[in-house]
Amino acid sequence: MLSRLIVDIFLYIIYDILVKSFMIQEVKMNLNSITEALMSFPEKLVQARKDKGLTQLKLAEKSGVSLIQIRRYETGNSQPNLEALKKLAIALGVTTDILVFGKDERGPEDELKMQFEAIAGFSEEEKKTVKVILDSLILKHEARRWSSG
User: Fold this and answer.
1) Among residues 9, 11, 36, 132, which one has the fewest Cβ atoms lying within 10 Å of its Cβ?
2) What is the phi/psi pair of residue 122, to 5°?
3) Range of the domain at 67
4) Where would I find the beta strands (DSSP E) of the chain?
């Protein structure tokens, strides 16, 4: 019983922190989502490369994809095959989804995907705890959504 109370208190504190931080970030995220959804593969590739501070040459070296192909991809004169796309994504430290899909066309955000991947390595007991916390947050979110709408 005490552990359930601790979990509820923890959830309330986390929820309060998340709501405050998300309110500020939501406006930024909405603008970024619109921009990202309108970007083509070449634009996404260029943006991801620049975000990592790489030149085309450095990306070619890091990925094993030829410089000429990188230039063709970035100008839209060619599309990578799956193997090249995988190499580019690994070299850029992003998922292939980031390069290919718009924000609304794919699953959870990359940050959440990385967290879920980390959770996959947890013990079964730790996974159960995470599931209880997530279920509680989802229920709380749904209750607020239904009560305000």
Assistant:
1) 9
2) -70, 160
3) 40-101
4) none
Asked if residue 78 is part of any domain, the answer here is yes
For residue 119, give every residue at least 6 positions away whose Cβ sits within 8 Å of its Cβ, in sequence order, or none: 126, 127, 130
Q: Cβ(42)–Cβ(76) under 8 Å?
A: yes
Q: Are 46 and 12 in contact (CB under 8 A)?
A: no
Please write the tens of the pLDDT for every residue from 43-77.
999 999 999 999 999 999 999 999 999 999 999 99
pTM for this predicted structure: 0.51
Amino acid at 89: A
Please report whether residue 94 resides in a domain.
yes
Answer yes or no: is 76 within a domain. yes
Q: Which residue has the higher pLDDT, 38 or 87?
A: 87
Label residue 59 exposed, middle or buried (CB < 10 Å: 0-12, 13-18, 19+): buried
What CATH number does residue 70 fall under? 1.10.260.40
**pLDDT (tens digit per residue) in 80-112:** 999 999 999 999 999 888 888 876 666 667 678
